[in-house]
């Protein structure tokens, strides 16, 4: 399982609304390409890009979505909003 759970901090919600990006905690061994493929398979959308960082021994992925898909819609499906 590559995508573990979404991040629902205040900062993550802000970039979701302003920049159409969604943030997930992912498997630490996962590559950017694997994260993009897992997200596309899970939510049936095509993400544009992914940025990753390691914080508190967890890998965080910020996934940018295209204008045809709203990050808030995916967050609603996950029960974040």
Describe it.
The chain is an alpha+beta fold. It has a single domain, classed as 2-Layer Sandwich (Alpha-Beta Plaits). 37% of the residues lie in helices and 33% in strands. It contains 3 helices and 4 strands, in the order βαβαββα. The chain has helices at residues 10-19, 32-43, 71-78, and strands at residues 3-6, 21-26, 47-55, 58-65. The chain has a 4-stranded antiparallel beta sheet. Strand 3 (47-55) and strand 4 form a beta hairpin.
Label this structure with key terms.
Alpha-Beta Plaits; 33% strand; 81 residues; 4-stranded antiparallel sheet; alpha+beta; 3 helices; 37% helix
CATH superfamily: RRM (RNA recognition motif) domain
Q: Compute the gyration radius: what is it? A: 11 Å
**Mean of pLDDT:** 94
- The total number of structural domains is 1
